Amino acid sequence: MGVDVAPVEVEARPMDLLRFATAGSVDDGKSTLIGRLLYDTKSLFTDQLAAVEAVSAARGDEYTNLALLTDGLRAEREQGITIDVAYRYFATPRRKFIIADTPGHIQYTRNMVTGASTADLALILVDARKGLVEQSRRHAFLCSLLRVPHLVLCVNKMDLVGYDREVFEAIADEFTAFAAKLDVPDLTVVPVSALRGDNIVSRAESMPWYEGPSLLHHLERVHIASDRNLQDVRFPVQYVIRPQSTVVTDYRGYAGQVASGVLKAGDEVMVLPSGFTSRIAAVETADGPVEEAFPPMSVTVRLEDEIDISRGDMICRPHNAPTVAQDIEAMVCWMDETRPLQVGGRYAIKHTTRSARAIVRGLHYRLDINSLHRDETATELNLNEIGRVRIRTTIPLLVDDYHRNRTTGGFVIIDEATNRTVGAGMVVQRD
Amino acid sequence: MSSGSAAYQVSQLDELEAESIFVMREVVAEMERPVLLFSGGKDSIVMLRLAQKAFAPASVPFPVMHVDTGHNFPEVLEYRDRRVSELGLQLIVASVPEALARGLVRESGDGMRNRIQTPVLLDAVEKHRFDALFGGARRDEEKARAKERVFSFRDEFGQWDPKNQRPELWSLYNGRHHPGESIRVFPLSNWTELDVWHYIARESIPLPSIYFAHEREVVERDGMLYAVNEFFVPRAGEEPFVEVVRYRTVGDASCTAAVRSDADTVVAVIEEVAATRVTERGATRGDDRVSEAAMEDRKREGYF
Hints:
The complex is a heterodimer of chains A (431) and B (304). With 431 residues, chain A is of the alpha+beta class. Chain A has nine helices and 25 strands. In chain A, strand 4, helix 6 (134-145) and strand 5 form a beta-alpha-beta unit. Helix content of chain B is 32%, strand content 15%. Chain B has helices at residues 12-30, 42-55, 74-87, 96-101, 117-128, 193-202, 266-275, 280-284, 294-300, and strands at 34-37, 64-68, 91-95, 132-134, 151-154, 182-185, 214-221, 224-227, 241-246, 259-260. In chain B, the strands form two sheets. In chain B, strands 3-2-1-4-6-5 form a six-stranded mixed beta sheet. In chain B, strands 8-7-9-10 form a four-stranded antiparallel beta sheet, with no helix packed on it. In chain B, strand 2, helix 3 (74-87) and strand 3 form a beta-alpha-beta unit. The radius of gyration of chain B is 19 Å and the shape is globular. The relative contact order of chain B is 0.15. At the A-B interface, helix 2, helix 4, strand 2, strand 3 and helix 5 of A face helix 1, helix 2, helix 3, helix 6 and helix 7 of B.
């Protein structure tokens, strides 16, 4: 009874993918903004909307509370707060979008860090009436720490300040000056009214003085292709494929996802940590060989020589290799509410496909993420605190500076007793 | 993977595929005893295709398991058995009727078996000592699932604790667990219903026939169309009629409804899904309508 599907060319969908993180609280109009994006791109379904309307009406809300769309957990709905990262999806004919919707308050810094870790773009909201607040600066700092390549500041509730150009420009100037002190490669500032839909999908007539793109127009067109590192070949070996079969014999392929760079047959490569060199015999997928592999492709690499390679090793180029190191400097965001990070603490580390154990050798300073002040007297990092640490690992890690490579520069810290992920680390190789 | 290598860009479908393959390889590299939950539904079918791709030219290195409620669509069972035999997979059936017979679970008052699947699943997990279970759940399906991790930790009772989830950064998945605990893994987390259909089209993956328009005897209940069969008996006043329908989701035959549709090809289904204004679970699942947090509650108990 199975229906065989003939190969069909559904109109080629050369759509790419943009992952963006939003941070903020209900007060900033974040939920309204997301609701508006979903609604106006027809990604909000009638049964979802009806469910939200029914709950809002039952609670006696004066208007439909769009926050209920993303606050999916019982506790969130009961308490009216966003606790955890929620993922939402929408698409336009040009792009598919994944929104990592994160709570904005300081007690949820770990959730924002999590959402930002994979984001191509981060969207920060401010209320035009209030201007920049401590939270806006903190969000901007976290985006720069996590090296989110594109930042968008939405100055929301412009309708409540009479669409005043001067109000907008004062906030834009202040934020631009602040961002200049951070590592923010690309910043766009858009005046919007999420409630009224001004400058969300199309340019608003209410603000003729604004000559930039609408928010959606910017999200659709922001150039992300060159955010990928195509220079440094980094291929963390994930799994060795060796078929136990009489049909395929003597096959040995190294499976993994390209972290950066371009790999192709014939390239001379070096394998770390052994340092052995060989050439790529073929780059393959289940659909056959490919000419080149680049991020984020998952492929299988075969080498010309038989060398001993296993999970956790890294294929790179002889003259462009990551640092092989057991002493690692990193910025760490602590994520555990039960126990602080302490000097002398022992943990497990997961970095690319490599796992190690580590000991915290030093805490240089704790950063006040609101003022960026460095407290060099700190002796521990508590939940949501960020600091510069030095760790020593049991085996060498194959690392790059996080600013150059988010995949080979990022690691997580795991508590060996509870198995919980308790910290996120970003390798620092320069100051 | 078709690569548009000129500009070193991949399509979003290729990016999703690459991510799912990465997730599956992580599990096989790090976990002791993985298993793939295979219901014969479109999401698990796509997941199985991704598993084939992730380990080629080797075969899929784990068994598949079907939690069989006993309320099946015959077309889906037939598809399951054919697919398993084509790919030379090991199939484990965790049977609800058998669990009822030996008293592990009791039939619920409303006759729906969605909830009693969970103890049967957990029993099979314990018996086979599975430590990683691939599920085809997607975050776009439902608001509780929107909060789910790719690697979802479950305690020794299979329970999900939504307020105590492990942070999941970059593509670093933490699958560490103690004996008896397990990880549910959702490789399709970032796929939407439309992505699944585009992928089925691109890969020419065969599907059970009930996904395409056909004539079926149905009754209307709570605004949904339920097929009349041995598991679904019309109540007094419900008049069966023949309608052209298809299934958007495939679950237990006693609580999965069909939708009116004349989409009889993949292309027609893609057009229909692209234009629809109702979510797939909202349109077809009686089990989600129990309460505002029905899915969250089931997940806490160990459901997917």
